[in-house]
């Protein structure tokens, strides 16, 4: 894959820090790590980030927005997740995930999504557990220190940085809408870019 085939220019990825991992790496995430810097931080493979992001968009586009749930316990993801939901019409939880919303029909917030995406499989583990219980697929954003248990699709990326998550959800929104035929060109949604990646 040459840079021309990336979903955004390589420089844009690098600027957002989407490839910068942590000093800790799990056995599962080793295959996504490009190198470890002298300061001990692991660097994720940009090509794999790009490929998996495209796979996530393709996977989500098989579902109607009302059947998709995005969950982010991590505060740095809240703005991007809310904006993604506002533009695409998917359901979301930004903040504490209410236990049992997929499994307890008596709850006021009960819902029946057909797929979920979590910004971090560890703080969002209750959502992953619920999805497992009801048997729906889970897409998980995973940093170098994540476990990838019970995830159907792992998307390697810096899932802690605000800019990184902003860029991720901007690209996901654009690709999702393109694949669904809701937009014809990237230009139609470029106006949202600054809102996704603002400080």
Compile the SSE list and pairings:
Layout: H1 10-16, E1 33-36, E2 42-44, H2 46-60, E3 68-72, H3 78-88, E4 91-94, E5 115-118, H4 125-134, E6 138-142, E7 153-156, H5 162-179, H6 193-197
Parallel strand pairs: 3-4, 3-5, 5-6, 6-7
Antiparallel strand pairs: 1-2
Helix pairs in contact: 2-5, 3-5
Kindly summarize this structure in a few lines.
With 199 residues, the chain is an alpha/beta fold.
Structure, described:
The chain has a single domain, classed as Glucose-6-phosphate isomerase like protein, domain 1 (Rossmann fold), CATH 3.40.50.10490. β5, α4 and β6 form a beta-alpha-beta unit. The longest helix has 18 residues. It is an alpha/beta fold and 199 residues long.
Low-pLDDT runs of 5+ residues are none
Order of helices and strands: HEEHEHEEHEEHH
For the residues shown, what is the average pLDDT?
92
- The CATH class label is Alpha Beta
The rough form would be described as globular
Give keywords.
globular, 6 helices, alpha/beta, five-stranded parallel beta sheet, 199 residues, Rossmann fold, two-stranded antiparallel ribbon
């Amino acid at each position: 894959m040459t840079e021309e085939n990336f979903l955004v220019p390589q420089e844009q990825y690098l600027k957002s820090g989407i490839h910068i991992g942590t000093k800790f790496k799990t056995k599962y995430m080793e295959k996504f790590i490009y190198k470890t810097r002298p300061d001990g931080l692991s660097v994720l493979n940009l090509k794999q980030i790009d490929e998996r992001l495209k796979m996530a968009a393709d996977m989500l586009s098989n579902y109607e927005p009302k059947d998709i749930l995005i969950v982010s316990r991590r505060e740095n993801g809240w703005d991007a997740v809310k904006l993604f939901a506002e533009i695409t019409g998917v359901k979301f939880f930004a903040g504490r995930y209410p236990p049992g919303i997929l499994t307890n029909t008596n709850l006021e917030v009960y819902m029946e999504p057909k797929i979920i995406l979590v910004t971090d499989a560890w703080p969002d583990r209750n959502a992953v557990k619920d999805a497992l219980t009801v048997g729906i697929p889970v897409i998980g954003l995973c940093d170098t220190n994540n476990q990838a248990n019970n995830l159907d699709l792992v998307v390697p990326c810096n899932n802690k940085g605000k800019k990184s998550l902003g860029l991720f959800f901007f690209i996901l929104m654009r690709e999702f809408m393109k694949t669904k035929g809701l937009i014809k060109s990237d230009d139609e949604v470029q106006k949202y870019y600054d809102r996704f990646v603002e400080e």
